[in-house]
Design a protein that fits this description.
This protein is 66% helix and 3% strand. With 189 residues, the chain is mainly alpha-helical.
Length: 189
């Protein structure tokens, strides 16, 4: 609704004034429609972006879960086979590896559940003083056990400061960095 008053006292609007006001009202209506269409387009774009992110996460998750499952299968098959060529002492080693990979899968599943909590703003973060070099060393060791083609190296200056953060989430960030394909991994420039 558009209400107009004249500043010229009791005089009425002329025909040209009404034509101008009608044009002005039409332009305002178009601007309102455009804003509504833009809001709908933004909403659709956000929904598409959320779906793309979800699909990327599912692809990454599938890849991440496949790695420990392959290891578990690789260690379990010879242990269960009647024709097991390994000597009896190799079974505890295989069972330990299976247990390690099951723990890795539990961590991944917990991280997935935590990620869903991020989406609904229910994630709890417990900041504490942490030494990044210790976290990086742990994650590098985990990753090195899975990667035989490369030698992973971490390096920190002795004066590197202690930071406040949630050790679990910081570890997850470094795990994500190590498992990102090298073609998409950020590089220092």
């Amino acid at each position: 609704m558009l209400v107009l008053e004249t500043i010229q006292g009791a005089e009425v609007f002329t025909e040209s004034d009404i034509s101008f006001v009608q044009t002005l009202a039409d332009l305002i209506g178009l601007a309102i429609d455009r804003a509504r269409l833009q809001a709908n387009a933004d909403s659709a774009h956000q929904a598409n972006e959320a779906e793309r992110t979800r699909l990327e996460m599912m692809a990454t998750l599938s890849h991440e879960l496949r790695m420990p499952l392959t290891s578990i299968k690789g260690y379990a098959t010879p242990s269960c086979s009647r024709r097991c060529t390994g000597t009896p002492p190799s079974r505890p080693v295989f069972l330990r590896k299976i247990d390690e990979e099951c723990i890795n899968m539990e961590v991944m599943i917990r991280d997935m559940l935590d990620s869903s909590l991020i989406g609904v703003d229910h994630l709890s973060i417990d900041p504490e003083p942490v030494r990044l070099e210790h976290i990086v060393r742990d994650v590098t060791g985990e990753t090195q056990r899975r990667v035989s083609d490369h030698q992973l190296v971490e390096e920190f200056r002795p004066e590197f400061p202690i930071v406040m953060g949630d050790m679990r989430w910081i570890k997850q960030v470094f795990r994500n960095i190590w498992t990102t394909p090298s073609s998409t991994r950020p590089t220092a420039g």
